[in-house]
Design brief:
The protein has ten helices and four strands, in the order E-H-H-H-E-H-H-H-H-H-H-E-E-H. By secondary structure, the chain is mostly helical. Strand 3 and strand 4 form a beta hairpin.
């Protein structure tokens, strides 16, 4: 029998994973049914799930990696992902800073946003620092990926519309201050570690330059100025 491998990229949501596994002859619907509600058997086997409610999904805990799914079923893949999570992210969680205030689920939630916002690895800890600053000051995170998660689709090159960012959802971080109810993707280990060891930065804003990097600013007026320069193609 030949081996069947499945690669799940960092930042994939459960829904995106489910679409990818169909190409490996697994059922998208079965995978979503397993991962959308927390089964008590998972809580018994994996200590990091014990504090979650049974109505929680496994979003955020399905570790992105390359898996050997030869002859396996959807449930087997979920177990593999949770086991890999235990040996990577949960291990990193054991070594979190002594003064860390967030729960594991809150940290994963923030890391899932950092994963989708940071296109360049060098910016992960800075972006995490910006979001921590905003959380401390009660400023809404204003993260596009959270709105995309609420809407259920990925924005086009034009970006989100004003109507999009008005969507009535607890995951809309333009309308609601604080963290969304749970992770919006399954972050990789690097994004999780960057969140735990975020940069102590003065910045409160960042805007995409279009090449994967961002311009970071301290005030809203600086932020608007950076946006206008990018539109005029004066920042390269």
């Amino acid at each position: 029998i030949f081996q069947v491998w499945l690669t799940i990229p960092e930042g994939f949501s459960m829904r995106k994973i489910s679409k990818r596994i169909e190409k490996r002859d697994l059922s998208s619907n079965k995978y979503l049914a397993i991962t959308s509600k927390l089964d008590s058997s998972f809580k018994e086997e994996f200590p990091f799930l014990t504090k979650l409610d049974t109505n929680n999904s496994l979003e955020g805990y399905l570790f992105p990696d390359t898996y050997d799914i030869t002859g396996g079923k959807e449930i087997d893949l979920v177990y593999l992902q949770l086991k890999r999570f235990e040996n990577t992210i949960y291990e990193a969680w054991q070594n979190k800073p002594a003064d860390w205030k967030m729960s594991l689920n809150q940290t994963l939630t923030l890391a899932s946003i950092v994963e989708l916002e940071a296109q360049k690895p060098s910016e992960r800890a800075v972006i995490a620092g910006v979001f921590v600053n905003r959380l401390k000051q009660g400023i809404p995170l204003g993260s596009d990926p959270t709105v995309e998660y609420a809407l259920g689709w990925h924005q086009s090159a034009k970006g989100l519309s004003l109507n999009d960012v008005k969507v009535n959802s607890a995951y809309n971080t333009y309308k609601n201050a604080g963290l969304p109810p749970g992770p919006i993707s399954n972050p990789g280990l690097a994004a999780f570690k960057a969140t735990l060891k975020y940069d102590n930065t003065p910045y409160l804003y960042f805007v995409a330059k279009g090449d994967g990097s961002h311009v970071f600013t301290r005030t809203y007026s600086e932020h608007l100025h950076a946006q206008s320069l990018i539109i005029k193609n004066r920042i390269k």
